[in-house]
């Protein structure tokens, strides 16, 4: 009987995880290493490309994007760029960042092949290094600052 109860419990857990994954919205997801292969989500790839191209104004334009994942990543990236004195925010951009940090909009997040969840933007910004975002920025901004003219 005990083994039967364990099997029933495991089936329920697996089914719940599967339904969470099936109902997710991948275009509105933030994740730096998702699924079996640890790939970044589309929003992360988009902002990474903009960072690598030093297209900081395009990142700033995502502060009022309809896609909450892009908006979150823009906030994270721009705050780091400001810290490094690589970008200066306008008052309007600062207001959009404050608004995003207090937003109740839902963002899908993922990590690895088993963690998929929905969190509010406010919750996402309440934690430092949410899902490894600071490690991502360390890597990407470091890559965007390389001098490629030297061989």
* Major sheet details: 3 strands, mixed
SS class: mainly alpha
Computed over alpha carbons, the radius of gyration is 18 Å
* Helix and strand sequence: HEHHHHEEHH
Which term fits the overall shape?
globular
- Distance, first to last CA: 68 Å
As residue ranges, the low-confidence spans are 11-22, 145-151
Q: What is the mean pLDDT?
A: 82
Query: What is the count of structural domains?
Result: 1
The percent of residues in helical segments reads: 40-55%
Structure characterization notes:
This is HEAT repeat domain-containing protein. It comes from Chryseolinea lacunae. With about 150 residues, this protein is mainly alpha-helical. The protein has one domain. The protein has helices at about 1-20, 40-50, 55-60, 70-85, 90-100, 120-125, 135-145, and strands at about 30, 105-110, 115-120. A three-stranded mixed beta sheet has the order 1-2-3, sandwiched between helices. A hairpin with a 3-residue loop joins strand 2 and strand 3 (about 115-120). Mean pLDDT is about 80; it is low at about 10-20 and about 145-150.
Summary of the model, kept short:
With 151 residues, the chain is mainly α. 54% of the residues lie in helices and 9% in strands.
Structural topology:
Layout: H1 2-22, E1 29-30, H2 42-52, H3 56-61, H4 68-83, H5 91-101, E2 106-111, E3 115-120, H6 121-125, H7 133-144
Parallel strand pairs: 1-2
Antiparallel strand pairs: 2-3
